TrEMBL record:
The keyword Cytoplasm does not apply. Residues 72-158 form the Mga helix-turn-helix domain. It comes from the Bacteria. This is Transcriptional activator. InterPro entries: BglG_antiterminators, HTH_Mga_DNA-bd_dom, Mga_HTH, Mga_PRD_dom, WH-like_DNA-bd_sf.
Length: 293
């Protein structure tokens, strides 16, 4: 994912990662060798990151330079910064949120020419295809390809770009999603912490945007667990959650939508309830005890 950063930003990120990971003295010559660049480039990069991250504490001496911050949140701040200041990522995010818009509107949003936009999209697609099976199209403006890859990529991207309490999804407030997840936790005794809750919300809201633009994942009926879907659709309180979806999202929380939201979890070997797991185990044991003549 970081390959979408500019060459300079990518190098500056690697520089900070080296300083964070090792927390020792580095001479500029050593950093230049590790980063495959000139000492002058390292000097310029250090000047830039010191200015961009005033909260980071750098020590310089005849021994070289080192960073003494040890809080994990500091390196997270670094990642947020580079993602937020990347033109390539910003254009990719704009297209995700505004699928179907005119290419001209993207040019106006980012003050770039049409030729520059096509060049950037070509670069984005080249990088994406190294790991994922999807691409960005400008005729029309949309993101197409393997739907599972698209959803995974953007959920991961949102988790790395935005801070814990940030919610950049103007079309979907977080409350109905929280209600749905709380119902799932209650009904399944799903082990939960704040980090997992946030990631699941990001996955669900990413799925909602794809549903909004008419993109659905193909469901393998042989591997899909209909019992898990039925279990949730019959859970006490689902009607209230469905009303919230209807009133705030204008989306009917029917079986198809629930299936699309939780398609990665409603697999035959993924159990949202202990009773469903035990029922499956008993069935497997019975099948093993059958004698075939």
């Amino acid at each position: 994912m970081r390959d979408l950063l500019s060459k300079k930003s990518h190098r500056q990120l690697e520089l900070l990662e080296l300083l964070f990971e090792h927390k020792r003295w580095f001479h500029r010559s050593e950093l230049a060798e590790l980063l495959n660049c000139t000492e002058r480039a390292v000097k310029d990069d250090l000047s830039h990151v010191k200015s961009a991250f005033p909260d980071l504490i750098f020590h310089s001496s005849t021994n070289g330079i080192r960073i003494i911050n040890t809080d994990d949140s500091d390196i997270e701040m670094v990642y947020h910064h580079f993602f937020k200041h990347s033109t390539h990522f910003s254009i990719l995010e704009f297209i995700f949120f505004n699928e179907g818009c005119q290419a001209e509107s993207i040019c106006k949003e980012f003050y770039i020419s049409s030729s520059s936009l096509y060049r950037i999209i070509s670069q984005i697609n080249k990088v994406i295809k190294r790991q994922f099976q999807f691409e960005v199209s400008l005729t029309p403006v949309q993101i197409i390809g393997n739907e599972r890859d698209i959803r995974y990529f953007f959920a991961q991207y949102f988790s790395e770009k935005y801070y814990f309490l940030e919610w950049p999804f103007e079309n979907f407030s977080s409350e109905p999603l929280s209600q749905l997840l709380e119902l799932v936790y209650k009904e399944t005794s799903f082990p939960m912490n704040l980090s997992t809750h946030r990631m699941l919300k990001l996955l669900l809201v990413t799925n909602l945007y794809r549903i909004k633009f008419g993109h659905f994942m193909e469901v393998d009926k042989d591997s899909f667990n209909d019992q898990s879907l039925d279990f949730l659709m019959q859970a006490e309180g689902i009607e209230g959650v469905a009303q919230s979806f209807e009133s705030e999202y204008n989306i009917s929380l029917d079986e198809e939508v629930v299936c699309q939201l939780f398609v990665s979890y409603f697999q035959k070997m993924f159990f949202i309830d202990e009773s469903l797991f035990m029922k499956c185990v008993k069935k497997i044991v019975m099948l093993k005890n059958l004698t075939i003549y």
